[in-house]
Amino acid sequence: MMMSIAVELAPKVRVNLVSPGWVRTPMAEQSLQRIGPALVPTLPNQRVAEVDDVVNAVLWLASDASSHCIGQDLCISGGALLVVPRGQMRPV
To answer: Total structural domains in the chain?
Structure first.
């Protein structure tokens, strides 16, 4: 849907999507305490995102620095959606 809207509104409006993974927030803290020790070693950058990681991505998309970025899904997940080698992640 985002891509369709991006095509319809371009070039007057740039439409992009931000897809965060786990972000350390008060709402997520209890879950992160439980699954964090198993989750963090599976992330390529070895840490859960902080709110500022997502904020900085959104600020970049809102700036002229991303003026040629249209219809993109910016994944802010620390690489969580990259292919995980077999056996690296174990069930919690």
So the answer is: 1
Distance in angstroms (rounded) separating the CA atoms of residues 7 and 53: 27
pTM: 0.82
Alpha carbon separation from 70 to 1, 18, 25, 46 (Å, rounded): 13, 12, 29, 29
Structural domain includes residue 61: yes
The two three-digit tokens of residue 88, written as one number: 């690296």
In a domain, 82, yes or no: no
19 near 74, Cβ under 8 Å?
yes
pLDDT tens-digit series, residues 19-35: 999 999 999 999 999 99
Nearest residue to 58 via CA among 6, 2, 29, 16 = 16
- CATH number of the structural domain spanning residue 51: 3.40.50.720
